[in-house]
C-alpha cells in the first residue's frame, strides 16, 4: 500500500579524518556533523591526542521516498571551529537515499590542515554508463 513502506535513508557513511595546524596534530578539537533530510541531526566528536577523529554511519527510516514526487536530498556538513573561525571539512548534497561511493571515499579521508584554503571540488560518480557530478566545499585536498 502506498505510504506504508518505510525506506532506509542513508544520511551519511562513516566519517574519519585527522586535523592538523601547520602539520602539527590538533588534539581535543571539536568536530561537528550536521545531516539534514527532513530534520537536522547533529552529532560531534573530539579529536584524540594525534588529531584523529571518527563518527559512525547514520541512517533513518522514512516513508517519503515512496512518494513518486519526492526527490530525496541529504545535506552533509562536517566542520570545526578554531579560534573563532569555522573550517569546512565537507559540505555537499547527496541526491537519493544511498550515499554515493565518491562521498564514501572522501568522508573516510577527511585529513585536513587548517592552513589549507577552502575550495570547491567536483566529484564524479560513475554508475554504468551514467555519470553524476557532485560539488563539495572543503579544506581537504583529496
What is the fold's blueprint, element by element?
Layout: E1 7-12, E2 15-21, E3 24-25, E4 30-36, E5 40-46, E6 52-55, E7 58-62, E8 73-82, E9 85-95, H1 101-107, E10 110-113, E11 119-127, E12 130-138
Parallel strand pairs: 2-10
Antiparallel strand pairs: 1-7, 2-3, 2-6, 4-5, 4-8, 8-9, 11-12
Written description of the protein model:
With 142 residues, the chain is mostly beta strands. The mean pLDDT is 93. It is 5% helix and 57% strand. The strands form 4 sheets. Strands 2, 3, 6 and 10 form a 4-stranded mixed beta sheet that branches. A 4-stranded antiparallel beta sheet has the order 5-4-8-9, with no helix packed on it. The protein is globular and about 50 Å long. The longest helix is centred in the C-terminal third of the chain and has 7 residues, at 101-107.
CATH architecture: Sandwich
Summed up, the domain count is: 1
CATH topology: Immunoglobulin-like
Number of strands: 12
Mean of residue pLDDT values: 93
**Structural class category:** mainly beta
Q: Share of helix among residues?
A: under 10%
Give the class-level CATH name.
Mainly Beta
List keywords for this structure.
Immunoglobulin-like, 142 residues, 4-stranded antiparallel β-sheet, globular, 1 helix, 12 strands, 4-stranded mixed β-sheet, mainly beta
Short recap of the structure:
This protein has one helix at 101-107, and strands at residues 7-12, 15-21, 24-25, 30-36, 40-46, 52-55, 58-62, 73-82, 85-95, 110-113, 119-127, 130-138. The protein is mostly beta strands and 142 residues long. The protein has a single domain (7-138), classed as Immunoglobulin-like (Sandwich).
Amino acid at each position: 500500500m502506498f505510504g506504508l513502506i518505510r525506506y532506509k535513508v542513508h544520511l551519511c557513511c562513516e566519517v574519519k579524518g585527522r586535523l592538523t595546524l601547520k602539520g602539527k596534530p590538533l588534539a581535543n578539537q571539536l568536530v561537528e556533523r550536521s545531516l539534514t533530510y527532513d530534520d537536522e541531526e547533529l552529532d560531534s566528536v573530539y579529536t584524540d591526542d594525534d588529531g584523529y577523529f571518527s563518527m559512525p554511519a547514520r541512517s533513518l527510516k522514512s516513508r517519503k521516498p515512496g512518494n513518486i514526487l519526492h526527490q530525496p536530498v541529504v545535506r552533509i556538513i562536517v566542520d570545526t571551529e578554531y579560534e573563532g573561525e569555522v573550517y569546512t571539512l565537507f559540505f555537499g548534497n547527496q541526491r537519493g537515499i544511498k550515499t554515493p561511493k565518491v562521498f564514501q571515499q572522501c568522508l573516510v579521508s577527511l585529513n585536513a590542515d587548517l592552513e589549507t584554503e577552502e575550495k570547491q571540488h567536483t566529484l564524479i560518480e560513475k554508475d554504468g554508463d551514467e555519470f553524476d557530478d557532485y560539488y563539495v566545499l572543503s579544506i581537504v585536498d583529496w
